Amino acid sequence: MTIRRRQWLALHLQFAAALAAGAHWPLAQAEEAGPVRLLVGYPPGGGTDALARLLAQHLSQELGVTIVVDNRPGAAGQIAAQALKTSSPDGRTLLLSHDHTISILPQVLRRPGFDAHTDFQPVAGIATFVNCVAVASSHPAHTWQQFVEWLHEQDKPSMLAFGVPVPASTPEFLVHRLAQKYEKNLMAVPYRGSAPMLTDLLNGQLQVGIAAIQDFMELHQAGKVRILGVLGSQRQSALPTIPTLAEMGIEGFESVPFYGLYAPSGIDMQWVQRWEKAVQKVLQKPGVHQKIHDWAMTACYMDHSELDSRERMHSQVWSRIIHDNGFAPR
Predict the structure, then answer these.
(1) Contacts of 183 (CB under 8 A, 6+ apart)
(2) Beta strands 120-128 and 258-264, pairing class
(3) Structure pTM?
(4) How confident is the model at residue 28 (pLDDT cuts 50, 70, 90)?
(5) 267 near 89, Cβ under 8 Å?
């Protein structure tokens, strides 16, 4: 065999090996430049952060890359979303977000600083969840009816303050709806995420909190808070005795929120397809599926096109809710 032929054969074998490892090739290039960042728009300790860390652990194993959760709290996820927009579409930066940042925030802010439909590439849907109303275990109400009776007895503004994780969110709009329903001057008090809100609820600085069910679930199971009602069209399998607010005559919030992974617009679609498959495999793991269920969420894989369709439909629902509430962008 001539030297030229041996060189050609060696190159051919290298190329074949590269093709065989094609699923990891671009990811390996990203790894050489540093770990993959998973942006989260909320502080550590909340439900979104917990889900991000669960996904980072298992996707790292599935894809063979290091994934680091990068918390960028503040402005209801706006800061993290803007960070994704300015990131290079090289596969090194993703955003884990629920519907508020993607579907609602652009409709309640005059200058959100991003357009989810043009600046982001949907990658994969992760899970669905519902929001709920909860009180501390020391609260006298054990049922929704008892809560309503307690509500009508209150006159002090501090007793009518409802904590919400972020402003202009599903929880805040629910506070407005409850105020109309029960003819009480309720006030939504926004926090910088669910973690500080939960601290005030547990310390007695707050009487009522409204947030995603995964933020309350472990505390509810430990007997430290009491979930009184959930949004959505049906009861949650993890909390079968807790009624929906639709059962209580509070309708209009039946569209179920969701979590999704997003990348900067312009990213290679072959990269998206690899992450889709990885997410699908991770969500099929019994341990991951059970953990998500324990948080009272539903593992719900969606490919990038399904996630995009779900988000656009959810945006239309919230466009109507925002309009019906007479809410003007801030």
Answers:
(1) none
(2) antiparallel
(3) 0.84
(4) low
(5) yes
